[in-house]
Amino acid sequence: FFFKLPSDSFKYLNWCDLEEHDVRGSQLLCPRVREAGPSEEELFFRGEEHTLKKRKQVTETEKWQKKLQENWENCAELNLSYQDLGDLYQVENLNRILRRLIRVEKLWLVDNSLTDLSAIRLPRCKELNVNKNHFTSFKQLPKIPQIQHLSLSENNILTLSGISALRHTPLESLTLKRNPCEFQENYRQLVFSSLPNLKTLDGVPQLPEDCSPPKISFLSKLCTIL
User: Fold this and answer.
1) Could you tell me the CA-to-CA distances from 214 to 172, 183, 184, 188, 221 in Å, in that order?
2) Mean pLDDT lowest for which of 50-54, 160-164, 196-200?
3) What's the average model confidence in pLDDT over 130-136?
4) What band does 38 get if pLDDT is binned at 50, 70 and 90?
5) Which of 85-89, 127-131, 215-219 has the lowest mean pLDDT?
6) Strand pairing partners for 127?
7) Transmembrane segments in this chain: where (predicted)?
8) What is the 3-state secondary structure (H, E, C) of the chain?
9) Which residues touch 196 (CB under 8 Å, ≥6 apart)?
């Protein structure tokens, strides 16, 4: 037998839509920031009319108060994973939030269908996890000058082209598991030679053979016709 939790009537609301609370955005590690929820018609067919809140006209003053309450500028650690924020309907709000994260040091954006964050700058970010998204190149990553730990597993990064953009960062660990570039010849040597500060790749510390310069085989450039 199915029992609804007391919080069931709030499941389609954002935290800042809840009344009579003094919680600020910097106090929430995993806020829900998706815009809107199911339409009134869809809620009716689901039999969830009780979750529908009366929509009211929002004044400019209320919008400003809401922005102050979010307080993204002072957020140091944030998890926005598993919200499909790369959807066309969501991406504008996501970018608005990311541009305000001027002090964030740890940011998780796992499984959000993201494709391009190159217009975003995260000046203090030291740890960024964007696993399970749709990035195809390092050039689509945000500007992260202070990055130390970067996880990009299960994306669609085809080659190591553009990885040199991370060369002048203090990057110590990089995860590229389950990307096509992982199968590139001399993969580990190429990555370590491009990133002088790197200590760990895909969870494996730098090995002696990783320090040798990548060998370019002349034969690999030839085409053999049988």
Assistant:
1) 20, 14, 11, 9, 15
2) 50-54
3) 98
4) low
5) 215-219
6) 106, 149
7) none
8) CCCCCHHHHHCCCCHHHCCCCCCCHHHCCCCCCCCCCCCHHHHHHHCCHHHCCCCCCCCHHHHHHHHHHHCHHHCCEEECCCCCCCCCCCHHHHHHHHCCCCCCCEEECCCCCCCCCCCCECCCCCEEECCCCCCCCHHHCCECCCCCEEECCCCCCCCCCCHHHHCCCCCCEEECCCCHHHHCCCHHHHHHHHCCCCCEECCEECCHHHHCCCCCCCHHHCCCCC
9) 167
Q: Are 166 and 195 in contact (CB under 8 A)?
A: yes
199 near 205, Cβ under 8 Å?
Answer: yes
Q: What is the mean predicted confidence (pLDDT) over 127-151?
A: 98
Tokens of 151: 């996880």
Per-residue pLDDT tens digits for 63-105: 677 777 788 999 999 999 999 999 888 999 999 999 999 999 9
